[in-house]
Amino acid sequence: MNARNIYDLLLQPFRPWLLGHDFEAIDPWIEVSGEGLPEIARFLRDQDELAFDVLHCVTAVDYFEPDEKKAAKVEWQPHLELIYHLSSTKRRHRLVLKVKLPRWKDDRPGELPEVPSVSGVWSTADWHEREVFDLMGVRFLGHPDPRRILCPEDWEGHPLRKDYRMPTEYHGIQAR
Amino acid sequence: MQAERAKSDTVEFDVRTDEMLINMGPQHPSTHGVLRVVLRTDGEVVSEVTPHIGYLHRSAEKIAEKLTVRQYLPFTDRLDYLAGMNMNLGWALTVEKLLGQRVSEKTRRLRVIIAELNRIASHLVAAGCFGLDLGSFTPFMWTFREREKIVDLFEEICGARLTYSYLLPGGVTAGPPDGWFGRCEAFLDQFEPVIDELHAVLTNNAIFIKRTAGIGVLPPEMAIDYGCTGPVLRASGVDWDLRRDGEPIYTEMYDGYTWQVIAPINGRYPDDHPYPPVPPEAVVGDSWHRFFVRMLEVVQSMYLIRQGIEKYSADDGELDKPIEIRKKLPKGEAYLETEAPKGQMGFMIVGDGSAVPWRVRIRSSSFCNISPLPELCRGVLIADMPAILASLDIVLGEIDR
Questions:
Q1: Residue B56 DSSP SS3
Q2: How far apart are CA B330 and CA B210, in angstroms?
Q3: Is residue A151 exposed (0-12), middle (13-18) or buried (19+ Cβ within 10 Å)?
Q4: Is this prediction's ipTM beyond 0.90?
Q5: Cα–Cα distance, B34 to A86 (Å, whole number)
Q6: In terms of CA atoms, which chain A residue is nearest residue B226?
Q7: Do B368 and A150 touch (CB under 8 A)?
Q8: Is the pTM higher than 0.90?
C-alpha cells in the first residue's frame, strides 16, 4: 500500500488532524497534528490492512537559521519537525509521519514544546524519545521515563538545536 | 519432632537477603565497551536492570552539520567500528538515494564482496567475545586469528585496518589490487573448515549450550515492538532481512545471488548446507539461537562472496568514481536502512541545497537491540546477564554515536 492509499484510509476518521502530505517526495510523508498523534499511531499499528508494527526511528529537525543574513533568505518559518519512520513486517510497506512543533512552547524561549508520547504504541519510541528530548529539547507527555539518555543528567541545553552554544566549562573541564 | 521439622521448614523458606544494587561497568570486560548497567539483585537473582549509555557520545550527528557528505564518511567508520565497510555502504547509499544516483553494476558487485567480508569479520568478533564472556578463551583466539586475515585483505585494498572509508558515495577511488580476489578466495577456502571447529568448541559444546539455551528468550512480538533488527530479530523467528526485503536501491545489489535468509521459521533453519543440529534445550529467541544465526550467516556470506567474485570477474564494465568533495545536495530528505552485521543501520540526510547537510540522523541498530535488556534480564541469574548481553552483540560506538 502506498502513502496515497494510507492517506485515504486515514482521511475518514482523522480528517481534522491531517495537516499536509507529499506523495512525490523521496520518502512520501503525511503530516499530522501533535494532539492526534497517539490515536493515529494506534490506528496505523492495529488496523489489519496497515499493520505498521515497526517504528524504526524518531528524528527531530530544527528549522532555525541563527545567521540573520541567511535567515532572510530561507523559505520556512522557524519550527521543529518530528519525523517517525514506520514500516510493516506483515504488509511490507513504509510510511513517514511528520509532526510540526513550535521551537518554544507559547514562544517563550526556554519552555520546551510538548507532544504526546507514542512509547505506549511502539516500545522503540521509549529510548528514541528520550534521545530527542536530550538532544533537541522536546517534551514528550506521558513518557514513562523522561530522562536524558546520551548527555549527563546535569547537562544544560539541547545540543542539536541550531542556536545551541557549547558551554565553556563543565565540572572544571575546559571545553574551549 | 513433627513440629520441630515444620518449624525448620518455615525457616528454610523464610531466609531473606537484602536487595543489593550492583554497578556493572562502564569499565567492565563483558559489556563490550563503555556500557554501564545497574543491577538490582536479590541474592543471585537479578530483579531489575537499568542500562546507562552515552559514555562514548561524540556528537556524530552535530558534526555532520558542518561537513560535506564525502568529508563525513570517515566519521561513519567510527560508528560500528567492527564493521566500518557496512557503515560506509549505508552512508554511501543514502547519499545516492538523496542525489537520485545509481552506481554501475560492477561497483555493486564490489560492494557486495566487501560488505559480506566485513560481515564475516564482525560476526567472528561476536562469536569469539561470546565465548570469552562465558569463560572459554580458545574460540576468542581462533576467531581473531581468522578476522585478522580479513583485516589484512582490507588493509591491502584501502590501507586501513579498522576505519576504512573505502566505499564512497558514488563509487570507489581505486579497485582492488592485482591478485586480491585470488587471495580472498584462498582465505575462504582455508576458513571454511574453521567454521566446523568453532561449531565444535562453541555451538555444540555442552557447557556453552547449558549457559545459553533457554536464557534471555526474546519473543518475536517483543523483538518487533522494540525495533530489534538483524540477527537478534531473526533468531526470534522473524523472517526479515533487508538484503531481500529492503528498498530497491539496496536490494538490487543482491539481485541474481543464491542465498538464504537465516531464521528459524517454525523452528527450522534452512538446509542448504550441513549445519550442526539444534540442541533440544534451545528455545527460539534465546541466546543460543542468536549465536547460531550469526554462525550460519557467516556461511551465507561466504556463498555471497564466492558468487560475487565470479560475477565481478565476468563483468567488463567500469567501476564508478566517487562524487566530488563539494557536491551540492538537493533540497529534500532521504532515509535509508541497510542490513549491517548488527542489524538495520539507518541514515537520514536532510539537504537544503548546499553541499553541507542541514541535518543528519543516524538510526543505530545496537541502540534498539539493547533497549529490551531490562525485559530480558528480569529474573535471571547474575551469571546469565553477560551471556544475554553478549548474545545481543552490541557496539557502543554505534549506540552512543
A1: coil
A2: 55
A3: middle
A4: no
A5: 30
A6: A124
A7: no
A8: no
Q: Which of B238, B245, B363 sits opposite A57 (nearest CB)?
A: B363
Amino acid found at B170: G
Cell of B273: 548446507
Q: What pairing do the DSSP bridges indicate for beta strands A139-141 and A54-63?
A: unpaired
Kindly tell me the number of DSSP H helices and DSSP E strands found in chain B: 17, 6
Using CA atoms, how far residue B144 sits from A96, B16, B128, B137, B153, in Å, is 41, 45, 7, 11, 14
**8 Å CB contact of B332 and A159:** no
Question: A131-170, pLDDT tens digit by residue?
Answer: 999 999 899 998 988 888 998 888 888 999 888 888 888 8
Q: Is the pLDDT score of B28 beyond 60?
A: yes
Tell me if B374 sits within 8 A of B50, measured CB to CB: yes
For residue B299 the three cell numbers come to 556461511
Answer yes or no: is pLDDT of B245 > 70: yes
pLDDT band (50, 70, 90) for residue B26:
confident
Question: DSSP string of B266-333?
Answer: TTB---SS-PPPPPTT--TTSHHHHHHHHHHHHHHHHHHHHHHHHHHHH--S-PPPPPPTTPPPPSEE
DSSP state of A111: S
Residues of B with Cβ-Cβ distance to A83 under 8 angstroms: 333, 348, 361
Bridge partners, A98 (sequence order): A31, A83
Rounded to the nearest angstrom, the gap between the alpha carbon of residue B226 and the centroid of all alpha carbons in its chain is: 16
Q: Which residue has the higher pLDDT, A1 or B295?
A: B295
Peptide bond between residue B26 and the one before it cis (omega within 30 degrees of 0): yes
Instruction: Cell numbers for B170, please give them.
Output: 558514488
Q: What is the pLDDT of residues B255-272, one digit of tens each?
A: 889 888 888 888 788 878
Sign, CA dihedral B229-B232-B238-B241, equals positive
- Determine, for residues B372 and A123 on separate chains, whether the beta-carbon distance falls below 8 Å: yes
Residue contact B54–A127, C-beta within 8 A: no
DSSP letter (8 states) at residue A96: E
Residue from B372, B229, B231 nearest A56 by CA: B229
Q: Measured in Å, how far apart are chain A's first and last C-alpha atoms?
A: 51
- Dist. CA B336–CA A117, nearest whole Å: 24
Between CA B400 and CA B53 the distance in angstroms is 7
Residue the block writes with cell 542490513: B339
Q: Do residues B134 and B213 touch, judged by C-beta distance below 8 A?
A: no
Residue B282: partners with Cβ closer than 8 Å, 6 or more residues away: B209, B212, B213, B214, B288, B289, B292
AA letter at B60: A
* Residue A31: all three cell numbers together: 503530516
Report the C-alpha gap between B247 and B337 in whole angstroms. Answer: 8
Can you give the pLDDT at residue B11?
47
Instruction: For chain A, give the number of residues.
Output: 176
* Strand duo A94-101 + A29-32: pairing: parallel
